[in-house]
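cache lookup: miss for this entity combination. No prior model stored, computing from scratch. Input as submitted by user K.M.:
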Amino acid sequence: MKKETSDHLFDKQFKESLTKDSLKKFPEEKTKDKESALAMLIGYVLKWKRREIDHSHIGEKDFQKIKHESLEIFRRSSSSGFTIRRLPRIAAAASILIILGVASYLLGEKHFFSPGDRQAQVIEFKTPRGQQSEVTLPDGTFVALNYDSKLKYHISPDKKLQEIELVGEAYFKVTHNKSRVFRVITPDMSVNVLGTQFDVRAYPEDNRTETTLLKGVVEIKDIPQKEAPVMLKPGEQWRYDKSTGEDKVIQANTNLVTTWRTGEYHFNRQPLNEIAKTLERMYKVNIHFRDAELGKEVFSGAAYKDDNIEKFFDLVNLTIPIKVQRDSTDIWIERK
Amino acid sequence: MQRNLDAEIWERFKRGDEEAFSYIFDTYHLALCEYGQRFTSDEFLVRDSIQDVFFELARKKDRLSPTDNILFYLLKSLRIKIFANIRKSHRIAETELDDERIDAFRLSYSTEVNPEEKELRLDLVADALNQLPPRLKETIYLKFYKNLSNKEVAEVMQVNYQSVGNSVQKAIAKLKKILDTSCESILLFLQTAIP
């Protein structure tokens, strides 16, 4: 039976395959399958032209309160008494690793915040290549963790300072708290935060480290060979080039900076070898350049997790002629 | 795959597994908030409704029915709570308030288009979508953005199963009509533009 427009439109895979470039395929698609072509146009509007409703004032704090109270009710109404059942499968899916303080964590939030607990504890969250994760930290901070990243959360008795170590990339939404300093530490810098939304990108294997501010105020400190901290305004991005030691602040397209959360990457005049590192994390592959000079070629374009990696190379091939060979997870690239 | 995992998590939650409950909260609270805000701009009402949903889950737990789609279950519960709370806040008797009285579903599309989109008449599609009645907007929202089936949509919105399919078909037919006229002109345009 032939598929109708609506069959396509509400098909999960079809929806996921829609990209901002879908319109270009329209003329061709129309001659092949008109129903699917029309679904593509309607789906495009639904997916990309939707107006977002005004930003909510319901904060993470409200939600944490609701969560906390529901958990209390949940425990009280437990018919079989207080039991802890581990959830190995979910834990594995989210790849959350709790190294220290396991016992206290499992005993619930109350104990978690117990002031008598002098010992500093660390919770570690990790994502492997190809997988992202979202967590809400005990202080209410929301974190989205990008591929192949690691975050260490220090539970310290000192309520005035909250330190987080980051390797990789993460988007933070920090609840406003005047009496506390929230600090993100990476190998090349640390970021001091007042209630805010920002993205930190600090992969050790990448040449560039970035911090982009979406909302609020941040201060970037401990930059190598630099005394003065850098203050960012919303919409600004701080970039640090590890090889030259130079840093600068630019106006960033903040919409594009956090699209990684939906499996989308936008590259703006970036060298192929830098792009390759992102692709490696995204698609769980290893990319090798047969010719090192090729890796320095600059490219602009987008990669989508839902598409396969070959599609991205096809796109590159349009401006930089390349030949791609693949052997399971290893990919070799050379000039055509 | 997703469905099986949902059923498993739901079972664990019902058996009193605290982590499963936390997981459900963490995973879905923002989606619920987003859905709730489409009915009303009263954010406190939305927040309280979300709280009602989770308090009830926490209380009832093992007495709840099984589900293989947690999001669907939660959306359904939230909608009931929101309508109940709107009723309460308006002090309107239940009999007076049918769906028509809650006459909003805040879902709209930008009619600002680039030349490529303009050529394909997507501004007209956006406009037509904006003109849809609230309940139809909600149907499309649940089907397109939340991946619910017609049967699930009918259950969430408490309407007849067949009417879900029919109303969507009608709306899409209308959109297709707008596009159809444009399709012809587009092909013409392309033929002249590309030698």
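stored under new cache key. Chain B touches chain A through 62 residues (CB under 8 Å).
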